Amino acid sequence: MSQGFGREKRLLVPRQFKAVFDSPTGKVPGKHVLLLARDNGLDHPRLGLVIGKKSVKLSVERNRLKRQIRESFRHNLESLAGWDIVIVARKGIGDLENPELRHQFGKLWKRLARSRAPEQTGSGVSDSPHA
């Protein structure tokens, strides 16, 4: 599996985000973040980020967070295959230093990977843009 973060690894349209928000099969709350996940029926995970001005005021901080989260996501692609993941940032996440962010997300990815039931079936509904 490629380690890049191309379009196929991203949630791109509101419909894809909505599918995860409406019926998450996995939910991992963290201190400054909420991870919502849903089976996507694909052989790779897709990531969507929700980092609003309300939770992180400065755009440079929001961009730094996005870079750090994407980097962490790339390093954990193998264990996250088959999930659509939306990360919702909460107040205080902008105060974390990069090493602390990496550490937190390392733990969150592991918890999400463990939360997957051994026998989970998809809903059969495809939300890929090519359907």
3D architecture notes:
- The protein is an alpha+beta fold and 131 residues long.
- It has four helices and four strands, in the order H-E-E-E-H-H-E-H.
- Helix 2 crosses helix 4.
- The longest helix is centred in the C-terminal third of the chain and has 18 residues.
The average pLDDT value, as a whole number, equals 87
Alpha-beta content class: alpha+beta
User: What is the topology, as strand order, of the major beta sheet?
Assistant: 1-2-4-3
Instruction: Please report the total strand number as a whole number.
Output: 4
Low-confidence residue ranges = 119-131
Biggest sheet record: 4 strands, mixed
- In whole angstroms, the N-to-C terminal distance is 22 Å
Shape: globular
Helix-strand sequence: HEEEHHEH
Helix content: 25-40%
Q: Number of helix segments?
A: 4
Q: Please, what is the oligomeric state?
A: single chain
Portion in strands: 15-25%
Question: Which structural traits does this protein have?
Answer:
18% strand, alpha+beta, four-stranded mixed sheet, 131 residues
List the helices and strands and how they pair.
Blueprint: H1 14-22, E1 26-29, E2 33-39, E3 46-50, H2 59-75, H3 77-80, E4 83-89, H4 98-115
Parallel strand pairs: 3-4
Antiparallel strand pairs: 1-2, 2-4
Give a concise summary.
The protein is of the alpha+beta class and 131 residues long.
